[in-house]
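Researcher: Going back to the complex we discussed earlier. I've cleaned up the inputs and rechecked each line, so this should be the final set. Can you rerun the prediction on the complete assembly and write out the structure?
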Amino acid sequence: MRREFTWRSLSLAGIFAMIGVLIIVQMTRIQISSEAADFRDQAVRYKGWMETVYPARGEIYDRNGKLFAGNQSVYEIGVTLDDVENPQSLAVILSTVLDIESTEVLNKISNAGEGQVYLRIADYVPAAQAEELIRIKSEIEEENKNSTQSGDSLAGLNFREHLARSYPEDMIASNVIGFVNQSGRGYFGIEEKYNDLLAGNAVQVWVPADPNRVEEIPHVPDGTTLILTLDRELQASTERILDQSLYNYGAESGTIIVMDPQNGEILAMASTPRLNLSNYSQYDDIFDSASEFNRAINMPYEPGSVMKILTMAAALDLGAVTPQTSYTDVGYFPIGGATIRNWDEDAWGIQDMTGCLQHSLNVCLAWIAVEMGTDNFYGYMAKFGFGHPTGIDLSGEAGGRLKIPGDADWYPVDLATNSFGQGITATPIQMMMATSAVANSGVMVTPHLLYGMVRDGKQYDFPPQNAGNPISKETAQTLSEMLANSLALEESEALVPNYRLAGKTGTAQIPTEYGWYASEETNTSFIGWGPVDDPQFMIYVWLEKPTTSIWASKTAAPVFAEVAEETIRLLDIPPDYIRQQYASGQ
Amino acid sequence: MTTNRPILQAPWRTQRQRVGAILLGVVMAIMVAALYLSVASQSTLIGREVQTLEREISLAKQENANLKTELARLLSYHAVETRGDGLGFYPATEEETHYLLVPGYSGREAVVLLEDNKEVISSSLPYEYSLSLFDWFENLR
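Model: Rerun complete. Updated structure for the full complex:
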């Protein structure tokens, strides 16, 4: 009996030992088999995966906290290939909802690579469309549960929600904001200039499949939120006025900038054409070149007579002339083998310097530039920042061109033509920066759009930056008075009742590609500011090729007045007599 | 004459001790295994909870972003203008505007998104860096 049990025990032990040996043999065989590397890869794959955690892109607000750019959920839509039951119905339903060809979807599914598990059909699908698909999918699943026949099926369809850029204001300030493409990179404007700040830093984390090894995903701070100096209401009003002006005056395109001359804050910057940022794929249909995206900073042009402000500022500051200096205008001024003539080719007789500005006399300004001398004139123009970008915080700013003595294409006549804004190119924002010295008691301010930023739970506000003192305070105040008087004396259409404003028109012929000026096409501009005793806004208007009139006094000047009225209303600037009453304590 | 007689334990007693030792070992092993299982399952549950909470945080952030965008669309310039027009509002004309002196009011100021944590960054371009050589000589005098 006992021996019989021993035999049984030994047999069982032998069987177990054999199983153990077989397991070890099989393990060894697998380890050295040709598929061993695949198994090892599979093991590594199942262990976990690397995931890139992208921070939410920083938001962009206007100065009053109105959202210009935020984020919203969109969906990536794809299929798990092994789970697809009815590719035809899947393709038809996707094509109906997502506006893509059903054959395209079918081809993608049938041409999926060997071993491919997941196929992306579309990304950045708006929530409404994705929710429609989710609804259809659940309805079909419900129908199929209650039916024995196999019908339509959206089995295998997957949805992945993620954030994408949203622009609640669509077109307002689009030329300033720019846009973000599907790879998350900012293009144009603020989105490009501050792309690194807005995007934040993506972090790669290892996500283990084993829950025992789960670790907290490191905190990935969101991108920096920016607060701009723009005022949304003023921006929208300025854009509306610009659009209406293009229609009224038959202009091709235009730009209007509103800036606080005391600190360089840009309150509004309108430019045409504009892009609906919620549909930025239309970019190619709207713009012929990148420089058209924001003419205020990208498009240098010959500004014409608005430049006379700066020539006069330089001459007054140098002491070459005083407001009372008289000049006898004979209608022409010979220089360098060429003859300078007035806009009306007429002689205006004896004029003081205010008269020269009031009647915008080319001959007078050419004489002033010659009186100053080449070195002094170009020295002042360099101090005003011509020939260099202003440094405004927008991407792609152009620098314009200031030819100086010594350049191969500079001729003595350029001294005269430059004095009244011909033969020199500048962007509207350069003109604003240079002229801010006149409006702001001799201190030139750097135009900027960033008011502050929110990062790591703190708001940081940026102080304004001065760009130099090209002229003295006395010169600036004298010239402001002269410009205000000249506007009043000519009963300019730029005037706004009850507000004393200073400013100057600029009608510039447009140089052709052949080197001469087109006779019937002009760029009309106006730069002005107010109230003269305490300037709170400065406005630049540029209308390109207006057709109802070629003169700035009939096109750009009334547009300035309209924008000034809107600015006064929206910034709550009281009329001069009320301010003076309050100032005198009444 | 005395003889030393070894005291032998009864065979059943030795067997019982061996069985007891084995049982003790088994019980200890079971306890360790149970403890390990308990800790492992708790750790797994917490791990899953961490994953769920992280997902919830992510969803809450998305929801927050969606709500901000939705609110901004409802308060967008054109939406407000359309509602205002519908309600009969229009921009005030100069004649309809009255100005009052409000002591202490210095005009509209830009938004403060974080009231308690506001700092003004000093100019990124110090004054000395913007001085020309002539300005520097001027300051020396």
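Model: Worth noting: The radius of gyration of chain A is 35 Å.
Researcher: Good, that matches what I expected from the previous run.
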